[in-house]
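Fold it.
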Amino acid sequence: MQITRPPSKQPLPPHARLVFLGVLADVYHWEQELYDGTKMTFEKIIRADSVQVIPVTSEGKIIIMDQEQPGLGKFTSLVGGKSERGEDPFLAAKRELLEETGMEGERWELLASFNPFATPEWMWFYFVVKDLKKITEPHPDGGERITLREVTFDRGRSKSKNCRFRGSNPEAPGFGVCFG
C-alpha cells in the first residue's frame, strides 16, 4: 500500500539542525528572523508516527484492547502504537496488528492520515483491516498487558464521558468518541 504522508504544518527550514536524537522524538533548532528584524531560536519536535488499526471481524465487530502500561494505568484503545524509526506506516500497522492480536489481515484501507500539530510534528495513520486470520499468539511489548475484546460498531461509538479510551483524536473522522 502506497502511503502519502500528510504535509507538515511547520516544515523544517533547510538550516535547522538536530540538537537531540531521542527514543520517541527528535528536537531541531534554527535561527529565525522576526518581523522587527531581531532573531530568535525556534524549536521543533518531531515525534514518531502513530498507527491505529481497526480490525473488523467476519461478523462485522471491531476488535479493541483493554490494556495497562506502566505509568498510564488501565485504558481502552484501538490496536496500534508507534512506528519504529524509518518504518513505513502501513508496515508498522501490520506489525502492531500481529504483535498485539496474533492476526494478519487481507484487506487494508487507509481511513485517515493527518498531522494534528505544528509542533510537535506527530503523524497519525488510521487503518481498517478485514479478512482477519489468526496465525499466532499475541506477543505484546514487555510494558503492555493486553486483553482483546470484540464490540459492535454501535457499542464501539458510544459517547461515554467516563471512558478511558486512548488513541481517539478529534481530527480523525469519527474517532473523537469513546469505544466503550
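The first helix runs from residue 89 to 101.
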